[in-house]
Amino acid sequence: MNRKSLYLMFVIAIMAVLMVACSSKGEKEKASSNEKPQTELTADDPGWKEDTSPITFDWYVNFSWFANKWGNDATSKYITEKTGVTLNLIAPAGNEAEKMNTMIASGKLPDFVTLGWGEDAVKQMIEGELVLPLNELADKYDPYFFKVSDQGKLEWYRQENGNVYGYPNASSSPANFDKYKDQKPSNQTFLVRKDMYEAIGSPDMRTPEGFLGALEAAQEKFPDVNGVPLIPLGLHEFGDTGNYSLEGYLQNFLAIPMEKDGELYDRSTDPEYLRWLKVFRQANEDGLLAKDVFIDKRPQMEEKIAQGRYFAMLYQRSDMAAQQLALYQNDPDSIYVAVDGPNNENLDTPTLSGDGLSGWTITLISKDVKDPERAIRFMSYLISEEGQKDIYLGPEGVTYDNIDGKDQWKPEVFELLNSDRTAFDQKYGASHTFWMLMDTDMQLQWQPPTEEPIKQLEEWTKGKTHSFAVFDDINPQGTSSEGVANSKIAQEWGKTLPKLVLAKSDSEFDKIHKEFLDKREKLGQEKVREYQQKRYEENKEKIDKAMQE
Questions:
Q1: What is the pTM (predicted TM-score) of this model?
Q2: How do residues 406-422 score in pLDDT, each as one tens digit?
Q3: Residue ranges covered by each domain of the chain
């Protein structure tokens, strides 16, 4: 091959390289041109308005009883039309803890996750870097988040690394709690079926003797309800770690203190508490606790409440509101009313729990979220006053109007809310149908006066509501030695509690309880207690500082 041919080949090779490079550059420029244009936003700019194109987020709600769907009602349709966001709401079919553990083990989560703030899975997701810091997302995509979020809540949930990974619902700062406590009573109630209670003479159920006597009298006078057996006493469901009714609820009714002289108090060993647990044991021995109480989950309980099958319940009033309305429509005398329930020997006023700073649930954004920019902006919209108004009142002209100078539900909408909560959720989807980020303080400005048959339950709690915010989030979680110990102790208590109630005698009860106390010491109770005391003292400092500002 001559020199000229070699030169031509060299030129051709160089041209080929240049063409490939130009092509690559063109592809990059083309790809870049398809990316979202970045707009410089300030804290005053609602970022969600920048892009309202259609997008669907998977939102996991860790409650098996949650059945609401997005897109069938007026409110969710309106929010989708306004923001472009559709939600694929997902709830576990079975055990919530098992479902969360499976998702965490897989390393992949839905776009949004809502679960109880105190669940161990929260710490696991944060430690496993499965969720994104909200503050970093806001810094990058949506400074508006910092304007509409509550700084006290962000500080409360700030981790040691300085990041905040979740935002609560039904959360109230100590200052707001004092401001609104008369408008937002406790959810903790002791309920009796009105007609049955009056038929047996409206007995005093504050003492063990009166309590057991009333259950027995109701069972004798009303052995069945519409052909099915009466259930003398209803409780929250038994879970892996215990039963709300027989723990915090009962302890609050007995006004057992959370601390004494600056030291956390072990309520689970309090003599009054153990005395009343033995009352429930006696109720079981006397045939006053149906097997249903130990095995039913919330859907089964809701069905039985709607049938009026329980005589009495140590239960959360908001959890049975829909069933209460159904009973009222059928027969106003068959509803449940709140009365004085279990009391301590001094008959002190109960110290019932109100909204705390931690709230009820916490919502996090997954590292696998399909569009982090749209996700944080949608969260900002939901927690803003505009979003809260939309989610609570629904679309103007459809669910509410300005009536007498106040934005409020239309009469026919309000009537359905007070007569058939399920139908209201399905048709209108307002109020607390989609409660995952509800701000119960902010929503008070639109809340109408409570009417019967809900009013009496609410009024009974007034004057008994207390803030326990300083005791929130004191339990160790995650994979630390304290967290593992606390988890094992909680699981052990979940196994022990039903055994205590099912014990054949008080002496057997004492034996089972002693075995539990011994076992929890071996599992690491002392280091758990030390961790809790430290966290309590830190919480106290944070709240004291917040109250002074």
A1: 0.80
A2: 999 999 999 999 889 99
A3: 47-172+357-448, 187-353, 481-548
